[in-house]
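Regression test attached.
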Amino acid sequence: MLFSGHPQTPLRSQTKAKSQGDLLLDFASHQRMRSYRARDVVLAQSEGTSHVFIVIRGWVGKTVQRANGRTQIMSIAMPGDLCCGELRTQQHMDHAIAAITPITIAIVSKFDFRTVLSHRPQLTRAFWKNQQQTLSRQLSWSAMLGLSGAIERIAYLMCELYCRQKNAAAGPDTDSCPFPLTQTQVAQACGLTQVHTNRTIQEMRRRGLIELANRQLTITSLAQLMAVANFHNRSAA
Amino acid sequence: MLFSGHPQTPLRSQTKAKSQGDLLLDFASHQRMRSYRARDVVLAQSEGTSHVFIVIRGWVGKTVQRANGRTQIMSIAMPGDLCCGELRTQQHMDHAIAAITPITIAIVSKFDFRTVLSHRPQLTRAFWKNQQQTLSRQLSWSAMLGLSGAIERIAYLMCELYCRQKNAAAGPDTDSCPFPLTQTQVAQACGLTQVHTNRTIQEMRRRGLIELANRQLTITSLAQLMAVANFHNRSAA
DNA sequence: CGAAGGATTGATTAGTCTCAACGCAAGTGG
DNA sequence: CCACTTGCGTTGAGACTAATCAATCCTTCG
């Protein structure tokens, strides 16, 4: 069927952008895999692990929970990203790993992973590049939490998730994307209450910044939303 | 002079802990160096660089400033840490690098640094371990900002800076340490106002958690402060 | 001595949280 | 097919945290 009847089909959209991330993905898809349903806990807080997880499908969250019940989503990993990237075996973890959407992840022992890396410089580069991107994102995220109020935070989250999806996937450049987070999860990522998050999202709708329904986010004006969020897209193609 | 006349001298205190970090330090101290006074700007926001900085002496802050003037200190690098650790040359930066205390840093071109790394696996490991620690700290920091109120934030900052100093330096285990940050800088790190920071620090003094004067921090009960801060010392010896 | 940066205080306001309900839609079991 | 449950979104009222604006004090330093 390939090349068979649609000569005008833009092939570029198939080859777009998918650079190093895919090396990790390719590697991962030949490893031992496991799937989880949305909201399953992959690794509980305080539970240690001697394995590295590589996300193959879906979104995976790294979370902490306090004694008082409040939860924070510290980061969201998407396909090609790593969880528990620390290569020291048996690092004690003070955070949990949970599936946000249905996910498939590769599970590789840290020991094996180190061995593989030492034989594959390309893969090593991809791994470290990913780590560096993660670090960079995390830095920006701290700044954002420190500097921003509710609207800016939520706008920022939306910008980031939108851009990461668009950067990763080959697809038409629409102004909308899947947005599987519940308002409660948005709140947990942004350090807000669910109630206040709800009111703030309504405010954003009222201002015409976004539309959000049925787990689908539509960004009316990306430039405008990015301005509100003080968001700068680092990895723009 | 080694082993020459003080058999009872505790050598351990000299060799304590200073593990991989020092490889970077050793390397750095043979490179081109520069010193800055406290508060000097090493690299302005938006100014790119094709160099890596390794901190040799003093504290270096990574900061962002918004159009409205509010500033956030995203991270603090101490001797042995890196700034601008991204190895891609000419990455555009959206943050500034500034001296918190008087500092000395090594300046290495990213290109050269990559070359050196490829020949020195030990150094490479030290480098990546440092990056991983930084990432881990940054994750916890996001969680902290998202979950905590003013007292917890400031307590957390103090715990972290105290522990990092104690972990790095070989020295007597006192309950006090240098604390060169002004209240304004504490505020910028914690995402609070200077005024509110002041009131909160007073509250902490009133509660007997800390003493703070003349850039010297004394922690009355580390356990208690860590409890307030929800801080867990990862790299405890 | 004046100037400047830092710490402190007071009064007021804006932003978020808390608690408490309610509505709606999808799923489940009888 | 209906009653019940559950998860998610929505709304309202009141309390409280932290921001804002504006001074004042203190120390250091030129």
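Expected vs. actual: identical. Residues 149-150, 192-193, 195-196, 199-200 of chain B lie near DNA strand D (CB under 10 Å from a C1').
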